[in-house]
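Please think about what follows:
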Amino acid sequence: MKSRIALLTLIMVVIGVLAFFNFPYLAQNVTTSLGFTSVEAPLGLILMGLTALMAIVFVAYVIAMQGAWLLEARTHAKEIAAQRELADKAEASRFTELRIAIENLHREEEQRLVERMDRLESHLHARVQESDNSTAAYVGQLEQQLRTAPTDVTPRTYGL
């Protein structure tokens, strides 16, 4: 891009230098044909003026194109920002849904764990009750055996 600008600047400088050094020849009046009539005018100055007019129109066209491009870029930037905001909202919504789903799974697992602990507790309570009953039965049986046992029991010695 800079090389193009340098080339255009060089061409304008060369045209300016040539016009400066050859101004008397450019300002000479000559018969100039306009197609339907002829006039006495300096042809060099007319051509220089048309060249300057063309350069002005070209610069105006470039500025208009740049302005249109900038407006389009601004519009695209706004659209991209709007799309990014929508994407961020959708992502936040997905994170919220994920958090809710994880919380629901956590509650379900917690409920299952509580139910299992309740079942284990009731099973343990039943086993303790069974153990108490069987211990009471053994103790009762021993008491019964002690009450009905003969009174003439002699202590045994085991060869010690």
Observations:
- The chain has a mean pLDDT of 89.
